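User: structure tokens for DUF1707 domain-containing protein, please.
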Amino acid sequence: MSIDPMRASDVERERIVAELRQAATEGRLDVDELDERTASAYTSKTRGELLQLIEDIPTARVAPPSPSPQRRLPTTPGRTGFTARWLAPARRRQAATELAEFVAPPMRAHGYALEHASDAHMVFARKHRPVWTYVLAVALFPLGLLALLHTEREEIVCDLHEHEDGTLISVSGKAPLAIRRALSELER
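Assistant: Done. Predicted tokens:
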């Protein structure tokens, strides 16, 4: 093994000392060896000198992190129920403002109106008349016209909860495929 003549940095010295301490906790070094090698690490001038202190200690091979499972985007057409959760890297008030700014316009385009908004809770709602009411109105005319009085309401509820790393946003409700896909994209 050729000795690396490059000058060692304090960060490199600390990393070697940490490896020596780990080796001692695993029983690979006794207390005297740990003290001796730690002192040598702090007085080492080159990287080569540092590497010699740990060359007889097997390094822990950390397995690479397993790739996070890719969440499948919704593919079912029509208006169906869904849930989505993601962590926004902002405080709750800012996350609520951004949610209203970026999510509300596409919701309006699909017929949803913002009914309630606060820093912790948002409700988008849509009222619509199902197709079956028109079929009944035509098939059973004139009495079938009463079916046109029926409307259905769909809601999308957004809850925002403070989290140490930002704001946890949970969205659930019934929505068309385009909205479900867009909100599911935010989970990644």
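User: Anything notable?

Assistant: The chain has six helices and five strands.
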